[in-house]
Design a protein that fits this description.
The protein has 161 residues and is an alpha+beta fold. It has helices spanning 2-23, 64-67, and strands spanning 40-44, 54-59, 70-75, 88-89, 95-97, 99-103, 110-112, 118-127, 138-146, 151-155. The protein is globular, with a radius of gyration of 15 Å.
């Protein structure tokens, strides 16, 4: 029965993401990449058992203003352009993950994300290891998140597991 609920949950998530794309309008202003940028994606209300662990962020469901210039948005403590990736420490039930947009013209280069887009299918993964190399501890997805100047906040309770 649990598996049936998971299957229906996944189907519903796919439908939500599909409708999100269909409902997206054009560029509504600064979609820009480089320079400045916000603090990234903040997750609140994380259960205490995850304090001291590390989180990262991933989406390839980019809005119209980002899809021409960038291929994915990644979230790490550091700029992943040098090939290294560091998760962000979860502390006091909260984590703020800096976001980086991978350039299409040079896939090894990332720009700090500073856009005003809505993204669907955001995956956040929690690791024991700051290098995000161990088997993940937990993983969840947010259906749609609206960013303003590169910033957004969601509660752990909004996770679609």
């Amino acid at each position: 029965m649990k598996n049936l609920f998971k299957v229906f949950g996944i189907i519903a998530l796919v439908a939500i993401i599909g409708f999100s794309f269909a409902a997206c309008g054009g560029d509504d202003g600064d979609g820009g990449g480089g320079g400045g940028g916000g603090n990234g994606f903040t997750i609140t209300d994380i259960p205490a058992e995850y304090n001291g662990k590390y989180a990262d962020f991933y989406t390839d469901s980019l809005g119209v203003s980002y899809s021409e210039q960038y291929s994915v948005i990644r979230g790490y403590a550091n700029d992943p352009s040098d090939g290294s990736t560091k998760g962000v420490l979860i502390s006091n039930g909260k984590v703020s993950i800096p976001l980086w947009a991978r350039r299409k013209d040079n896939a090894s280069k990332y720009d700090k994300f500073s856009g005003n887009d809505s993204f669907g299918g955001i995956i956040c993964t929690i690791y024991n290891d700051p290098n995000c190399q161990d088997k993940f501890t937990d993983k969840g997805m947010f259906s749609t998140v609206k960013f303003s100047n590169g910033n957004a906040t969601k509660s752990w309770n909004d996770f679609l597991f």
